[in-house]
């Protein structure tokens, strides 16, 4: 009996050592989280860079801001490792109570794919889009969502889904609000950049959304109040 217990202990110890050695040999691919500042900035900056250089130029293109709820939505869906759109995007107020419909772009590729590579790939679909007659010669819905003028919030996420490609693979999803890609509608109004917003609300050829502008104004007022109180005390 005692010998059997000793053998079981040795077996368990040996198994633990093997697992420990294997875990060191097998490198787990790094996947950025939705709280990673570098990941967030790259997603937002690349979107805004693309939106600020559209051709023809956009009169009403809004500046995109990161939205934590949209990022959590994207993460919850990528964890399911299904290369298909989230069903909630087809139903009003099903994804979030703040917006009736949510836009969604998806990408599946190498695990080391970066936000810059993914968003640039979506934007490259512009060559298939005819702005004048609002038609696509091939797939271009990812592009039109990236440059949809009325969209002002974005949240992205990536998960490792080896089951989709038979090896480590990045399932990358970005959700947008309000949703774009309305039928028979151009993604933006053609015209001089920022010509449909005030000069003080124009940032890198993009218009600040009214709520974001109000937030910035409140922040400025608080800073000024803090400065005054500091001088008085």
TrEMBL record:
Protein's UniProt keywords contain Signal: yes
Keywords: Signal
Domain SCP: 38-184
Signal peptide: 1-23
Coiled coil: none
Domain of life: Eukaryota
Pfam families: CAP
Family as reported in the entry's similarity comment: Belongs to the CRISP family.
PANTHER family in UniProt: CYSTEINE-RICH SECRETORY PROTEIN-RELATED
Protein name: GLIPR1-like protein 1
Species name: Microtus ochrogaster (Prairie vole)
Classification of source organism: Eukaryota, Metazoa, Chordata, Craniata, Vertebrata
Primary gene name: Glipr1l1
